[in-house]
Design goal:
- The protein has about 270 residues and is an alpha+beta fold.
- It has one domain: Glutamine Phosphoribosylpyrophosphate, subunit 1, domain 1 (4-Layer Sandwich), CATH 3.60.20.10.
- The protein has four helices and 17 strands.
- Strands 1, 2, 10, 11, 12, 13, 14, 15, 16 and 17 form a ten-stranded mixed β-sheet that branches. A five-stranded antiparallel β-sheet has the order 5-6-7-8-9, with helices on one face.
- The radius of gyration is 18 Å and the shape is globular.
Length: about 270
């Protein structure tokens, strides 16, 4: 199981950014864990980000293959709008489910799909959709309502109750109505998670209003170590081609593993 949290930023012109964060653990019962399982994805060619929870095997095999078709512009056309892109993603997903071996059990899972308009000028709209596959071989599709201010979009996974309990105490705290408030909550919950099926280091993908035209993944600094898509990585001269964040959601240098000098301090509210 897992914990997947999504949120969005907004200013006076509209939505500015959207994010999906996940833990990195896959578990076998309560005894065996692997803490580098990728659960968040992004397109290099389109402003689309994806996260999943539930059954690990099928989504982790199929989503990367679908994204490759997307990025080669085989599945999507350049001018496809957000709903069209999601519908094509959903159609391909269902097609692959039909090919899944009948002798194997495909457990329930949920996939969150966040995207925005492709426009050269002005302020794009953002959208969020959810695909829910149920163990009884039925599925459901939801268009999620976005908050009117910076804040939470959706929470999924077995760790959701722990997150909602913590977030409820922070919703009116010092960092209320900010994007960092959601990630602060996520960081705190992940560190003291009571659900042993959720764990590992955070992984994070995002969309900006501009200038990036596609989704991307952030690097995460945790206890002086560097992680990307849940996997620990070593130093490289090119390490700062990745945008880095720490548990406070502060912009950091991957090279020196500290908050950048121009970056605003965003301390976690400890009064709660």
């Amino acid at each position: 199981m897992t914990l997947v949290v999504s949120w969005i930023g907004k200013d006076t012109h509209g939505y500015t950014s959207a994010y999906i964060a996940s833990d990195s653990r896959v578990s076998w019962g309560n005894l065996n864990f692997y803490d580098s399982c990728r659960k968040t994805f992004f397109s290099n060619e389109f402003p689309d980000i994806i996260g999943f929870c539930g059954d690990v095997l099928f989504p982790s095999m199929v989503i990367p293959s679908i994204i490759e078709l997307i990025d080669k512009k085989i599945l999507y056309d350049e001018n496809d709008g957000p709903r069209t892109r999601f519908d094509k993603f959903k159609k391909k997903l269902i097609e692959e489910i039909k090919h899944y071996p009948k002798s194997e059990i495909l457990n329930s899972f949920e996939i969150l799909y966040i995207c925005r308009d492709i426009i050269e000028k002005g302020y794009p709209d953002f959208y969020a959709y959810k695909f829910i596959w149920k163990k009884d071989k039925s599925y459901q599709v939801k268009a999620l309502k976005l908050p009117v201010i910076s804040g939470l979009i959706d929470v999924m996974g077995s760790g959701a109750s722990d997150f909602n309990r913590e977030y409820g105490g922070r919703i009116k705290g010092l960092n209320a109505n900010t994007t960092r408030n959601v990630f602060h909550t996520f960081s705190v919950v992940l560190e003291k998670m009571t659900d042993k099926k959720s764990g590992g280091v955070a992984q994070l993908v995002g969309l900006y209003r501009k200038p990036e035209k596609s989704g991307f993944a952030f690097g995460i600094l945790h206890k002086r170590n560097r992680y990307y898509n849940g996997m620990r990585i070593s130093f490289s001269e090119n390490i700062d081609v990745i945008e880095w964040r720490n548990r406070n959601f502060e912009i950091c240098s991957g090279r020196i593993r500290k908050r950048k000098s121009y970056a605003k301090e965003q301390s976690i509210d400890t009064t709660i």
